[in-house]
Amino acid sequence: MRIAIDAMGGDYAPDEIVAGAVEAINQLDKDDELLLVGPQELIQAKLDGLGFKKGPLTVVDAPDVIGMDESPVDSLRSKPKSSIAVMAKLAKHGQADAVISAGNTGACVAAFQMRMRTLPGVNRPGIAVVFPMSAGPVTICDVGANIACKPINLYQYGLMSSVYAKAILGIARPRVGLMSIGQEDAKGNEVVKRTRELLRSDPRMDFIGNIEGRDIFRGVCDVVVCEGFVGNVILKLTEGAVDGLFRAIKQELMQEKARLALKFKPIIMRVYQKHDYNEYGGAPLLGINGTALICHGSSKSRTIRNAVFAAKKCHTQRINDKITECLSEARVRTSDA
Questions:
Q1: Were 101 and a residue from 3, 6, 59, 187 both cysteine, which residue would form a disulfide, CB within 3.0 to 4.6 Å?
Q2: In its keyword annotation, does this UniProt entry include Acyltransferase (predicted)?
Q3: 153 in the same domain as 102
Q4: Are the beta carbons of 157 and 126 closer than 8 angstroms?
C-alpha cells in the first residue's frame, strides 16, 4: 500500500510531519511505502537531519505550498504544483492508495473531490471525526467539508458514518442522531426536518431522532449527523473545553500536597490520552473515491504516525466498497431530497 503524506500541511510542518512519517516506517508491512510530498530539497534535508538513511519512503517534489488562510479554490488554480494538488493527482492516477494532510481543509476537500471524485451515488463528501466518550466512541459527520447542506447530504452522512462506525469501530448497529435545537420533531429548520424524514424512512439505520449538543457526551447515540458549520463549531468547542478542563484539574492538583498530586497523575494522563486527538490520527473524508484523511492543523509527529495506520485500516477494511453497496440499496435518491 502506498500512502502519500502532505509534508507541508499543518502548523508544525514540515518538521513534525516528516518526523511522524519516519516514526511510522518501522511499523509498516513489507509491501507498504510512504510518499512525502513537498519541496524535495527541504524535505530531504529534514530526513537527513533525523538521521534517516534508508527505508520504504520516497520524496515527491511539490515546490508550492498552500497556506492555511488561503482561498481553497483560488490557491489550487494558482498553485498546481502545491503539495495538496500533487498529492491528489497521485491518488487520481493510482500512484497512491491513500492521502493524508494536516493542511488547508478547504483546499484538501476541493482537491480530493476534483481529482479523486466521489463514490457512485454520493452527492457531497463529509469529514467524520471520532469523539472518544466514556460510553464509547461517537462519530460526528460533517465537521467542515460542507457548510451548505441539503437533506440528501445529511442523509448520506448518516448512512456513510454508520458504515464507518460498524466496520472501523466495531459497533454492530450504530444509533444515529440528528443534531438540532431540541429533541421534539417540531424543532429545527426545514433542512433538519426534511433530513429527519429521510433518516427515519431508511429501516437499515437505527435512527433515534433529534439530539441536542449535550447528548453527544451522554452516550445516547453512536453517530451524529450535522452540517459542516455546526460540526466544526462542536469540534473546536469540545477541544477547547477538554483542554480547559484538564488545565483546571492540573492547577488544582498543583495546589495540593506533592504525594496526592503524584497519586492522581497517572489517572489524569490516562484520561487525557483517551481524549487527545493526536492519538486518533486523521478524520476520513467519507464519500471520496479513495482513502483520504484530514488531520488537525496542529498535528504533531504522533498524529501523523497514527494517521498512517488509520489510513491502512480504512483501506484494508474496504470502507468505500461497503459505502457504495449500502448506497446502491438505499431507497432514497437525490430527487427525493
A1: 6
A2: yes
A3: no
A4: yes
Q: Where are the beta strands (DSSP E) in 7-132?
A: 33-38, 57-61, 98-101, 126-131
Quick check: pTM over 0.70? Answer: yes
Rounded distance between C-alpha atoms, residue 272 and residue 66, angstroms: 32
Q: Are 334 and 200 in contact (CB under 8 A)?
A: no
Residue 291 and residue 97: Cα distance in Å, rounded? 7
Distance from C-alpha of 98 to C-alpha of 146, rounded to nearest angstrom: 21
Bridge partner residues of 45 (DSSP): none
Measured in residues, the chain has a length of 337
Among residues 45, 41, 46, 36, which one has the least CA distance to residue 15? 46
Whether residue 98 contacts residue 295, with contact meaning beta carbons closer than 8 Å, is answered with no
The string of pLDDT tens digits covering residues 219-236 is 899 999 999 999 999 999
State the Cα–Cα distance between residues 142 and 126, nearest whole angstrom.
Answer: 5
Q: What is the DSSP code (8-state) at residue 42?
A: H
User: Residue 99: what residue type?
Assistant: V
Say which residues have a Cβ less than 8 Å from residue 302's Cβ, sequence separation at least 6: 20, 23, 278, 279
- End-to-end CA separation in angstroms for the chain: 38
Record the cell numbers describing residue 86, joined without a space. 500533487
Q: 466496520: which residue's cell?
A: 167
Is 91:116 a contact under the CB 8 Å cutoff? yes
Residue 333 falls within a domain, yes or no? Answer: no
Residue with cell 492547577: 251
Q: Are 228 and 141 a contacting pair, CB within 8 Å?
A: no
Q: What is the pLDDT of residues 102-148, one digit of tens each?
A: 999 999 999 999 999 999 999 999 999 998 887 888 999 999 999 99
> What is the CATH classification number for the domain harbouring 228?
3.40.718.10
